[in-house]
């Protein structure tokens, strides 16, 4: 009994320490996505929607490499290191993982480079070949970045992890802006080819930062201590790790790359569908560029939920094996925070979309399609949280089946809906596919609902009221230029944020501990004591 109590206290302590990283990682994630939005604005403004189309067609291939090295593989490795029996196993796990990840990523790099022409042909635009080739270099850095960041997550060193992500993105954005302004006289495809090299140079900068901070890999360490696992035991260990990597890492990769997989389906389907609908390739390219405006917007909206799920993952995995009561408590915490934040973020994005679209991209083209796209943030946030819980329970098979079901729906719906409804249909296909995955995960979930029906209905009413007020502000002001839209956007965000905090505080939806997990949560609690003291 005492041992179990000590175990519970240890998990609570580790959990609290890990969850303190949620705010820092969320801020870092926001900065990364902010930088991503920053380069997209001048890129689209300088090169137009057609230029944006060229870049975004090849972008899913880079984004997949970036997700492997920034989130999915580090999360998997962190979980393995937390579960390891001690330091004697840690080096073996890292060495094994380095070989697997390095081999697979090198093969992917070769495939992208040598089959770029065929991939471009499948997309319906052979000129994309040179752009796709430049993406392949980023795959060469996946192994070292993944192992370094996995160690940081396992040890709860969120600050250094956040710095590495920010540095990588900052260097990448610098290269993209250099391509945008320095090669403006070149073709759209040449500009995007240079811009895609930003991923490689950003990864190099992150590796340099981590190595200068004293982080080493067992392969590179000066410590020559040999593995404690010998002979047949070593072969058995490697076979076991290979099986774990193939079974578990595939699920981490699949869910982390969910949006990227959807973007890949878009790259192979939407341009061809729009070309069939409009009859002109030039118009189809511009419309695809307008549709692609939604990618950074929904990713920016999902930053907090993604960061929260990342920081919860090690705690969930450890508590599930040692204390089911704490696991259930942490799982419900994650889902409660997720439901509230995703509801307000989704409605907020829908309400401010016209002002946001014009502020970022000079016009409001495709705002309805982007609003439908933003609606997908609600099921996406739920998917990310449920995936973290499923991973904590080591329920990998059903997670993968749910994902494959959603991808199948996305693949079957995208072309016909785009063919008849344009980019609104493409957005609808994404939102429906995400909803299918979320419903399938909920169907098999054993955590249950985290709010009563009354509270859930009340939240919907409050969110609807917030959205209506924000929309009334936009149409009441009716801004006529870009600066007017920017000021209106700021006013809408301020009003929406204020109303959201007011509703949540007044209804006591979250506990004190849950508020403390949120960025600025303790300060917001101070407002509660001041305005809602009984």
Roughly what fraction of the amino acids lie in strands?
under 5%
Total number of helical segments?
Answer: 22
SSE succession: HHHHHHHHHHHHHHHHHHHHHH
Radius of gyration: 23 Å
Please bin the fraction of helical residues. Answer: over 70%
Say how many strands there are. 0
Q: What coarse outline follows from CA principal-axis ratios?
A: globular
Task: Please characterize this protein's 3D structure.
This protein is mainly α and 534 residues long. The chain has a domain at 14-256. The protein is 85% helix and 0% strand. It has 22 helices and no strands. It has helices at residues 2-83, 87-114, 116-123, 129-135, 142-155, 158-182, 188-196, 198-212, 231-256, 258-278, 281-291, 294-301, 303-322, 324-361, 367-375, 377-392, 396-421, 423-443, 453-477, 482-507, 512-517, 521-531. The chain is globular and about 65 Å long. Residues 1-15 and 220-227 have low confidence and may be disordered.
Compact overview of the structure:
With 534 residues, this protein is mainly α. It has helices spanning 2-83, 87-114, 116-123, 129-135, 142-155, 158-182, 188-196, 198-212, 231-256, 258-278, 281-291, 294-301, 303-322, 324-361, 367-375, 377-392, 396-421, 423-443, 453-477, 482-507, 512-517, 521-531.
